[in-house]
């Protein structure tokens, strides 16, 4: 073989080796880049999970306030109150006050914007519309508020049952068993007898009526699940004719009234 041919063969072999080495390096770089991207995605998702937990915790703490107004909380203030530090340009948006099944609530969206981000939260529906590739989470206050609503109804029901039981007890302890006497209200309002319920002409909070001392009401039943007072009346709002009743009511943070009555058994 001539020396020139031998040189060409060496050069060709070197070129092949260089090409293979370049491909290997490029492959390693691709793998490294993908690994870094996966690691970043994992860290960012963990961060968004922490944001979700912080937002839910904030919502639960502010349950009596967050849906009181039709105006949405300001995003920067919300972040401070929830104790959320902003990373990767975190963005927050809050919906209008929404209503479903008689329950008011809001949806909060949080996302990490990408390049030319155009993500939006439809404030009127609570639906989040993310841009392609955007990592995001959303939090709904519906379950929290629906739970508080259910608990409040349960407290009203327990209070009504307690008052009915007290009514029956007084009826059975009266030798005459006179069913025409309204035992939800004292016979002489100016001087109620021991164990009689005071005369409550207008709605007033349970806590200020003396009912606790008269029939031993659990203090928990004097407030609703949001901490607002439960009110009672055995005056004009209640039935003064058979079957006698005592009226109960309370208000949700968004202004609706929940009402119930304790009714004397016929």
Give the overall average pLDDT.
89
Give the topology string: H per helix, E per strand: HHEEEEEEEHEHEEE
Helix content: 25-40%
> Which structural class fits the helix and strand makeup?
alpha+beta
**Main sheet: which strands, in order across?**
8-9-10-11
Point out poorly predicted stretches.
23-29
Number of helices: 4
Taking the alpha carbons of the first and last residues, their distance comes to 122 Å
Strand content: 15-25%
How many β-strand runs?
Answer: 11
Total domains, how many?
A: 2
Characterise this structure.
With 266 residues, the chain is α+β, with helices and mostly antiparallel strands. It has 2 domains: 3-140, no CATH class; 146-263, no CATH class. 39% of the residues lie in helices and 18% in strands. The protein contains 4 helices and 11 strands; from the N terminus they run ααβββββββαβαβββ. The protein has helices at 3-61, 75-82, 142-173, 211-215, and strands at 91-94, 98-100, 103-105, 107-112, 120-122, 127-129, 135-140, 204-205, 231-233, 245-251, 257-263. The chain has a 4-stranded antiparallel sheet with strand order 8-9-10-11, with helices on one face. Strand 5 (120-122) and strand 6 form a beta hairpin. Helix 1 (3-61) packs across helix 2. The model is unreliable at 23-29 (pLDDT under 50).
Index terms:
11 strands, alpha+beta, 4-stranded antiparallel sheet, 3-stranded antiparallel sheet, 266 residues
